[in-house]
Amino acid sequence: REYRWALDTGPNRYPWFSFPAVRGNRLFYSSVGLDAEGLMRFRYDCIDFAGGNILWERNVPSRFPMGSPYDPERLFVENTRLLDYGAPLLWRKSVIYASGDHALRSFDARNGKDLWVRDFDRPLSTAVTLAGDRLYFGLRADASMAGGVVPSGGALVCASPSTGRILWTIPVDGTILNSPVIAGRWILFGTDAGFFYVFEKLY
User: Fold this and answer.
1) DSSP 8-state assignment for residue 8
2) Does pTM surpass 0.85?
3) Does residue 154 carry a pLDDT above 80?
């Protein structure tokens, strides 16, 4: 009933933590905070599962293109209410993160080196789901950050885990709230516009 190890979450750490993923003796997770300019900043860690030692760590600024209508501080608050926000996805020798800004990132799971980054015109709204050799995740609806207007124009994206290349995109009403669930040939998710979608994969 004693801790095997405890992670230091002092003032130099970010306040929000994702669900972890474990492979062998390695534990992966992300943490998120706001910097002095009010922009999101991400920390990606790989930890020795047995001893709690940091094997590698990346500290990465968020990516918001010039003129993005999305407010990083508001996105940070909204995203931290989603349970699967920023969760790592392990695929072969890589770890892939959708952290809530405009980018999907892949790192070498062995040493944390960049493999690829894919930018989108809108922030990603879910963590990534893997089925076979495909990634599935959501993009936020068109920004209406004030006025209480129900958003519209989100999207479900299917991409390649090896390069981040977009394979297809399907528009949906509202922002997808959960990582897409894959059940056999079905893809299931809900949106903040009050819709629940079930797509069937056709071969």
Assistant:
1) -
2) yes
3) yes
